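An instance as discussed:

___
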Amino acid sequence: MSVPAQLDWAQRLQSIAQSGLAYNPQPFDRLRYEDVLAIAVEMMTAAFDAPDQRGALHDLFASMQGHATPKVDVRGVVFDGDRVLMVQEMLDGGRWTLPGGWADVGESAAESIVREIREETGYRTRAVSLLAAYDRNKHDHPPFVFHAYKLFFRCELTDDARVPDPRNVETGQVGWFRAEDIPALSLSQGRVTAAQIARFFEHLRQPGLPTDFD
């Protein structure tokens, strides 16, 4: 499922406005970029049917600095035999997903996913390969304000001991699941789809598969 056209247009207009404002334009051009930003906000609120969020969305877009680029979401695919590691997403009623989150500034993508797995599951791992680099807009994820890439790393346990992080409030239980036993997924949060998990099990069965992209 591709992103709705109206949302795609709004994301592109927001990107044009943010990047244009980043390069210290002349006063007339600055006004035009600010107008483009306002149009992006109107289109975005219409796409989400949330006119009451116009002010908050404008403030969010206006706070973005520098040349606009896609955001990066990292996810960890950790196998134990024929089972994959999953966590409960507390923001989505306890449904399940792969551990992960937004990549942090100052870390490589691989460092970010190792940290996310440790924080959300209590397991220590190392990233061993990149299974997929997906454009979020080209997969069956719910609409999102910003354009984002999703990087799925195959990770291996470095220690069987699990030490939960007491500061973790984003995820609940941790579990290992076979392909035929995948629980209800946290689809509303756009973390991972059933088709993507099925594809990662194909990578498990065929380790020589190349990295997926787009």
User: Anything to note?
Assistant: The radius of gyration is 19 Å. The first helix runs from residue 5 to 22. The longest strand covers residues 125-135.
